[in-house]
Amino acid sequence: MPGLAIALVLISSVGHGSWNFLLKRARNQEIFIWLTTVTNSVLVLPAAIIFSIIYPVNLSLGWIFLLGTILLHVLYFVFLARTYKHSDLSAGYPTARGTSPMLVPIIGVLVLHESVSFIAAIGITMVVVGIYTIYWWQNPRHIIRHPTTLLKNVGSRYALLTGLIITCYTIWDKHGVAYMHPIVYVYIMFVGVGIILTPYMLRMHGASQIKTEWALSKNRIVTVGLLIIFSYGLVLSAMRISQISYVAPAREIGIVIGVILGIVVLKEPFPLRRIVGSSSIVLGIIAIALSP
């Protein structure tokens, strides 16, 4: 994995873990995440115009990928908001993010015909094992014997659905950024998501709740919006210079960031499973980085 791709992914992971932490602390997660798309549609417009001029947009096929990523991200933001409404950060985040690195390399090899080295395969496995250790080590035998237990919990259901959507848009966007600069691509996605979700938010929550959320959280909303476009733009840039089978697992170092924020800021406990799981993720990232 190229050194530049590693650097982009690691920086992105810090931003990603941070904005998920801020989203979890929101009063109303659905309104909060929608308002980030609306504010980004305004704040990032100048940068999107500049990048579209420097890097001309190819809409011959690009519009298909834009439409697809908008629809996928509508589901992603709604499912993620509901995940944090019904579960803790330390449970929902690893579950949602853990589904993707397990599925993406498999699809990358079978569908995109990418090749994965032995060292990288070990690293990917360590990342996946680390993610699931953080969340499921508490009672692994019960999970193995009764896997449907997870589906009985509302938070777990939404976290798994979020992970499935992450898998879909990761592979989809790998092709989408071939037609335009990542910043332009992500910006148009935000505009589309904001427009589509507006009627839903007004109907489900009402104007008064939206105004209240903005009054209480406007600084954090702007911060999260910028962190999302910054962090995902870096991941898309990494995908342009490295294999998706490497980038997808490597970006999950953000789970470690989330665990640290939970310990330091939210004062969550730090049992052995989180130490072992976080260490496995870090070692897996190193193995991916060292792979040819």
Give structural attributes.
globular; single chain; mainly alpha
Q: Unreliable stretches, pLDDT < 50, 5 or more residues?
A: none
Shape: globular
* H/E topology pattern: HHHHHHHHHHHHHH
**Spatial separation of the terminal alpha carbons:** 6 Å
Quote the beta fraction.
under 5%
Total domain modules: 1
The overall pLDDT, averaged over residues, is: 83
Number of discrete helical segments: 14
Helix/strand/pairing category? mainly alpha
* Count of distinct strands: 0
Q: Round the Cα radius of gyration to an integer and report it.
A: 18 Å
Largest sheet: none
- Share in helix: over 70%
Tell me what you see in this structure.
With 292 residues, the protein is mainly alpha-helical. It has 14 helices and no strands. The chain has one domain. Helix 1 packs antiparallel against helix 11, helix 2 runs antiparallel to helix 4 and helix 5 packs across helix 9. The N and C termini lie close together (6 Å).
How is the topology of this model organized?
Layout (H helix, E strand, L loop, with lengths): L2 H22 L4 H15 L1 H10 L4 H28 L2 H22 L7 H19 L3 H6 L3 H4 L1 H23 L5 H23 L1 H36 L2 H7 L3 H11 L7 H19 L2
Helix pairs in contact: 1-11, 1-13, 2-4, 2-10, 2-11, 3-10, 4-9, 4-10, 5-6, 5-9, 5-12, 5-13, 6-14, 10-11
